[in-house]
Amino acid sequence: MKPERQTILIVDDVPANIGVLVDFLEEKQFRVLVARDGEEALARCQLVKPDLVLLDVMMPGIDGLETCRRLKQHSETVHIPVIFMTAMTDSDNVVAAFEAGGVDYVTKPIRITEVLARIHTHLALREMHRQLSAQNTLLQEANDRLLQAEKMASIGQLAAGVAHEINNPIGFVNCNLGNLQTYVTTLFGVIDDFQQAAAAARPVAARMAELKEAAEVDFIRHDFASLMDESRDGLQRVKDIVQALKDFAHADNANTASADLHRGLDSTLNIVSSEIRNKADVVKEYGDLPPVECIASQLNQVFMNLLVNAAHAIAVKGVITIRTGRAGQWVWIEIGDTGAGMNADTIQRIFEPFFTTKPIGIGTGLGLSVSYGIVKRHGGRIDVHSELGTGSQFTVHLPIHREASP
Ligand SMILES: Nc1ncnc2c1ncn2[C@@H]1O[C@H](COP(=O)(O)OP(=O)(O)O)[C@@H](O)[C@H]1O
Ligand SMILES: [Mg+2]
Question: What is the CB < 6 Å shell around ligand 1?
């Protein structure tokens, strides 16, 4: 399995005991190292990390059992299998060897073919263990991603439902506002007409002027216009939020085309330059990017959200680094900042719609959720790395061609 030779460390204070064994193992293509006592064995293990240790029990200084215990205390050496070489095979001694962390023992005088068989067994076991834990890590990561994807899918459904429900009332309130404006304007006109018609009859005109003043008609006329403007503005904001929720939840039917992402990044940087200029220096480390099949305007929106967030995270003055590169059939775009960073609880929630840690008026909590939706629909993903007080990196991974998506 491994192309390089495997290393075995033999620890024994009597060289005569092991000469034959060393020759034999070297003949079998092992790399063999020798240590004379426990201290030396520990030092060599730290340095070389052998694949297996053959350990004499009775040695001057720290004995084999203690040596083994210490090996098992360090994370770097805990996984190295230890086979004891011992002359004492009564039950107590054997149990002590296993308790110290040994995986096996061979009896002295050593029978080299038996040693070889046991070495093979334990190296194979160790390799299996290594593969298992690697697969376990992969599984764990896949599981985490799945959980996150499921959470986002259910939030997406919720968002789509809310957007749909809000759309309808917004529609008729907007329509009614238009009618109201027409009606009220007509009424103001009628008041003016009345006043003109009454000009000839003095007492009526005076009475009308009185009534108008008492009802503050001039003020109402003036205030009405700004109330209308404000309401329209409010409605527009609600519409924008609903649109963002829809963007998060739904596929857009805009067409994909091959695009140069560096151009997209540069033009987006231009748009947000006023937000960034006094906050951060921008460092570009662009790699080689092929054209990517995408909806460029949507990806620009993602870049914009990431860049604005990076600027927001920087309190006084910092650096925003934009790096890009290609990995096989994928490209990646990383936007990093030297800002405040995030704690684990925040990282867990940043892609949820309306999750924000910013004051009202500054944060809507929609930027990253919309970005998540866009990147997902492109068949990609956003990875986040962040350290409190140091900064954050957001990495967008995208397939170059849509069929390469997972
Ligand atoms: N670069 C960053 N550094 C630190 N925190 C960030 C960064 N980007 C996003 N966040 C966190 O994620 C939250 C959600 O971001 P986002 O969805 O863009 O909404 P908003 O920016 O409106 O708060 C932010 O409020 C902030 O807490
Ligand atoms: Mg934002």
Answer: 305, 309-310, 313, 337, 339-342, 346, 350, 355-358, 363-369, 392
